[in-house]
Amino acid sequence: MNIIAWIILGLLAGAIAKAIYPGRQGGGILKTMILGIIGAVIGGTIVTLLQTGRLQFAAASLSIPGVIVAVIGAIVAIFLWNLFTERSSY
Questions:
Q1: How far is CA 47 from CA 4, 25, 75, in A?
Q2: Domain for residue 82, yes or no?
Q3: How confident is the model at residue 25 (pLDDT cuts 50, 70, 90)?
Q4: Is this model's pTM higher than 0.85 or not?
């Protein structure tokens, strides 16, 4: 997939995931795009694992199912990011 398709997929998936995930994530367009691209890789890897039973890095494509997989992966990425960066309230 070429770089423009990665950017478009990243923006779409990141923006949709930020809209779905509860709470305020903050960040600008670059953070949204990177979040979406990471989500595409996470989602593609999970789908490949479920389909083949092998752990293999793969990325979602720029299609309707690919965007859905990338959004799910981006939601997982937001959850993990919040889990690791959350400050304790003690």
A1: 23, 26, 15
A2: yes
A3: confident
A4: no
